[in-house]
Each structure stands twice: as C-alpha cells, then as structure tokens.
Write a structure and sequence with these properties.
This protein is mainly alpha-helical. The chain is built from two helices and no strands.
C-alpha cells in the first residue's frame, strides 16, 4: 500500500475543503446562522477524513509490523 500517495490525496482533499470554508467565511451575504449551517458539513467532513487517514496509517503500521515478525 502506498501510504504516501494516500496521504497526498487526503492533503489535496483537505486543501479543497479549506477553500470551501474560506468561501463560506468570506461570503458577506450570509448571516451567522447561515454561515454556521454551511460550515457544519465541511467541519464534519474534515473530521471524518482525519479519522479515516489515521485509521489507514494504523492499519499500514500494523501490516508493516506483521511483515517484520
């Protein structure tokens, strides 16, 4: 498994999420409630992706340790 490739792809996705966050935050036409409503899915997505990459790293580490044994 090419963990570096996977991490690079996750970084690309995180950067796209950050762009979306900045667009929402800079949108002056949104009030606080609308901004919060648009931010929730972005925040949740980032958290889910963060958990996923950590899980992938853990599985990769365990696989490497098993191969060494």
């Amino acid at each position: 498994m090419d963990i570096e490739l996977i991490e690079r792809k996750f970084d690309e996705i995180f950067k796209e999420l950050e762009k979306e966050v900045m667009e929402v935050l800079m949108d002056q036409s949104l009030d606080k409630k609308q901004t919060n409503l648009r931010m929730k899915p972005l925040t949740s997505t980032k958290q889910i992706l963060g958990n996923a990459i950590e899980s992938i790293r853990m599985v990769h580490k365990l696989a490497e340790e098993e191969q060494r044994s």
